């Protein structure tokens, strides 16, 4: 059997030829631009021809590159079709869900086994990012909380978010709290991505924090949960994300009966509308807000 050229080399070349850019190919393949360039140089060395003219800020195909790109495109397309056919034979239908990192870590992943048990024929792929949904990304469904991040997609609310005040047991023993509106002297653990949490708490239970130590500000909710668990202060976090910590005693709430509504998670639908999408959407809606 004749030697087959490396598939990663071929994939990098096909993407760069189709997109007309090494950097665009890198973005599509989740590689660095340097890695794409190295793959293509290796392919050129194997073939013994130059496939691209390389300018200062641009590349273009040589005649040999144009000829080879047609073959490469056909080969990649046929491989993709063969892969899809094999997955269909195996009875696994792929569904790409684009979600939020902390929501995925603390809520979706622990429940996904239940969906897999109900629908073993569906293979769920999950990608995560914060901020507005990028409609150019390949996904079938998205999950977001902030309506400003829906990007014009049809939204189906499915899960309400309530938040509460939490800290470690050792912190509460050292720094007792008499009332939800009496937090002077306490360190507030704030979350850059969720400034609304403390703001909502203070709107509901007004208190003066001016005389308190400087707040500890972290990027993400999971970091704030860890900081509270380590006894670094008080955090306002969604119950969805700290339920296990509370049940295990790693966190406590000084006022467990006091919660504030801080949002609703929505399922965002795009063009794909088939049985697989409906299965996942129906399952999520069993947790209806």
Task: State the gist of this model.
With 289 residues, the protein is of the alpha/beta class. The chain has helices at 7-19, 22-29, 33-47, 63-89, 101-118, 169-174, 195-204, 221-229, 239-248, 275-284; strands at 52-54, 59-61, 93-99, 122-128, 141-144, 154-166, 188-191, 216-218, 234-238, 260-269. InterPro entries: LysR-type_TF_proteobact-type, LysR_HTH_N, LysR_subst-bd, WH-like_DNA-bd_sf, WH_DNA-bd_sf.
Describe the structure.
The chain is an alpha/beta fold. It has 3 domains: 7-90, Winged helix-like DNA-binding domain superfamily/Winged helix DNA-binding domain (Arc Repressor Mutant, subunit A); 93-159 and 265-286, 3-Layer(aba) Sandwich (D-Maltodextrin-Binding Protein, domain 2), CATH 3.40.190.10; 160-263, Periplasmic binding protein-like II (D-Maltodextrin-Binding Protein, domain 2, 3-Layer(aba) Sandwich), CATH 3.40.190.10. 44% of the residues lie in helices and 20% in strands. The protein has 10 helices and 10 strands. It has helices spanning 7-19, 22-29, 33-47, 63-89, 101-118, 169-174, 195-204, 221-229, 239-248, 275-284, and strands at residues 52-54, 59-61, 93-99, 122-128, 141-144, 154-166, 188-191, 216-218, 234-238, 260-269. The protein has an 8-stranded mixed β-sheet. α5 links the parallel β3 and β4. α1 (7-19) crosses α4. It starts with 6 loop residues before the first helix and ends in a 5-residue tail after the last helix.
């Amino acid at each position: 059997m004749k030697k087959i050229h490396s598939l990663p080399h071929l994939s990098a070349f096909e993407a760069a030829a189709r997109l007309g850019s090494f950097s665009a190919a890198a973005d599509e393949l989740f590689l660095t631009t340097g890695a794409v360039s190295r793959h293509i140089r290796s392919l050129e060395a194997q073939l013994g021809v130059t496939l691209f003219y390389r300018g200062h800020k641009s590349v273009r195909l040589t005649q040999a590159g144009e000829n080879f790109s047609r073959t490469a495109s056909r080969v990649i397309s046929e491989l993709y079709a063969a892969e899809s056919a094999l997955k269909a034979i195996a009875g696994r239908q792929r569904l790409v869900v684009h979600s939020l990192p902390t929501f995925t870590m603390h809520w979706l992943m622990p429940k996904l086994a239940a969906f897999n048990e109900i629908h073993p024929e569906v293979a769920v792929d999950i990608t995560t990012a914060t901020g507005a949904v990028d409609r150019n990304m390949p996904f079938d469904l998205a999950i977001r909380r902030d309506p400003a991040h829906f990007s014009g997609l049809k939204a189906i609310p499915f899960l309400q978010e309530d938040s509460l005040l939490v800290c470690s047991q050792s912190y509460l023993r050292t720094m007792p709290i008499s009332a939800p509106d009496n937090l002077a002297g306490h360190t507030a653990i704030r979350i850059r991505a969720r400034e609304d949490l403390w703001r909502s708490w203070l709107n509901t239970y007004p208190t003066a924090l001016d005389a308190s130590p400087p707040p500890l500000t972290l990027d993400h909710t999971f970091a704030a949960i860890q900081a509270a668990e380590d006894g670094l202060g008080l955090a306002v976090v969604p119950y969805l994300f700290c339920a296990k910590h509370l049940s295990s005693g790693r966190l406590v709430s000084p006022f467990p009966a006091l919660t504030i509504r801080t949002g609703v998670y929505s399922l965002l639908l795009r063009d794909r509308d088939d049985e697989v999408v409906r299965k996942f959407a129906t399952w999520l809606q069993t947790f209806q807000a």
